[in-house]
Known about the structure:
Blueprint: E1 5-11, H1 15-31, E2 35-39, H2 44-53, E3 61-65, E4 84-88, H3 90-97, H4 99-116, E5 119-125, H5 131-140, E6 143-152, E7 155-165, E8 173-180, E9 183-191
Parallel strand pairs: 1-5, 1-6, 2-3, 2-4, 4-5
Antiparallel strand pairs: 6-7, 7-8, 8-9
Helix pairs in contact: 1-2, 3-4
Amino acid sequence: MLGGSVHVLLGEPMNALELMAFxxxxxxxxxxxxxxxxxxxxxEEQVRAGVExxxxxxxxxxxxxxxxxxKKAVTIPDPSKGLRLVVDSFSTxxxxxxxxxxxxxxxxxxxxxxxxxxxxxxxxxxxxxTEMERTLLKQxxxxxxxxxxxxxxxxxxxxxxxxxxxxVADSARFLLFKETEKGLFMExxxxxx
Length: 193
């Protein structure tokens, strides 16, 4: 993912959504720049354990656990080259402060990310947003990743669909995956038509 970019991970609440966020944060802790993880859904120790499970370093991880109560001001470490910022879950924030306010807060974060060359991942639950909101979020982001299920015969297979990625000419991909004890294992790659 290119520095200064913002990516949206859309999907229904499932383990894979959390695992993708953990992998993203873990990569930042391994590269030396560190990661910041702002969560409305998990406790601090859950985030630290999840990032460590997928190979991340807890000592390079800053966690802001907001809980499900009233939202307070969030203190995020000053972005610096190599920081990866995870905002989990944008949907909960949007429900609590309203769509317009949530998007205004994201716009401020995006401006910081762009100026420092860091990277941000935002998770959102597809079922908690209207089609118009999902479309606006996809247009706003530099990269869009969508988690879902593909029905094949009598089976239901989880997939990751990459529909937009800044700096990648042909980014449309459809990847089937399975969850393992160490994270996600991508099984195949097909073009999305």
